[in-house]
Amino acid sequence: QNMFGVGEPATTGNVLARHPFDTPGPPTHVQVREVTRESLKLLWTPPEHDGGSEITGYFVEKKEKTSVRWERLNKESVVETRYRVEGLEEGLEYEFRISAVNAAGVGKPSAPTLPITAQDPVDKPGPPGPPEVADTTRSSISLTWTKPTSDGRSKII
Predict the structure, then answer these.
(1) How far apart are CA 111 and CA 108, in angstroms?
(2) Is 94 exposed, middle or buried (0-12, 13-18, 19+ CB in 10 A)?
């Protein structure tokens, strides 16, 4: 507009208002560590593609192996590339996946982990004590020994 009047308006084509970057790619190399009957620890590597914006955090999800529904475990994104999962039910099998977050939003999730059973770790038992001859006959020998110092956290049968 000037002192002679109002000019014709300028027009443009359709414009889509959005961030100048994309959501991040999926985190990689998700690993499960320190599994017990009630908890476990997840570790992962940041996505190869950050979408052009710094990764600000991660969301962790779990599901039971037989379910199709994923459950988000953290309400607020976590900054570290590790997360302790608590409240597991002993004997159930779970899968886990991680999604990265940047200024554009939440990216696609990682590939799910292989199913993990919530149980205390079990090892092989230690060796028994050295055998000693307890009795002999013409056709047999009876041996005795002491139990292993470690049962591997499982009953010896």
Answers:
(1) 9
(2) buried
Count of alpha carbons within 13 Å of 119, Cβ hemisphere only? 11
Note if the pTM is more than 0.85. no
Interval 124-153: pLDDT, tens: 888 999 999 999 999 999 999 998 888 877
User: 26-58 burial string, b = 16+ CB within 10 Å, else e?
Assistant: bbeebebeebeeeebebebebbeebbebebeeb
From residue 12, give the alpha-carbon distance in Å to each of 9, 15, 16, 19. Answer: 10, 8, 12, 20
Say if CB 55 and CB 42 are below 8 A apart: no
Tally Cβ neighbours within 10 Å of residue 97.
Answer: 21
Q: Taking a C-beta distance cutoff of 8 angstroms, is the pair 36, 121 a contact?
A: yes
* Contact assessment for residue 100 and residue 26, using Cβ atoms and an 8 Å cutoff: yes
Dihedral Cα 93, 101, 74, 45, nearest 10 deg: 50
79 Cβ neighbours under 8 A, 6+ residues apart: 56, 57, 58
Q: Among all chains, which residue has been given the structure tokens 């977050």?
A: 101
What are the C-alpha distances in Å from 35 to residues 83, 111, 146?
13, 19, 31
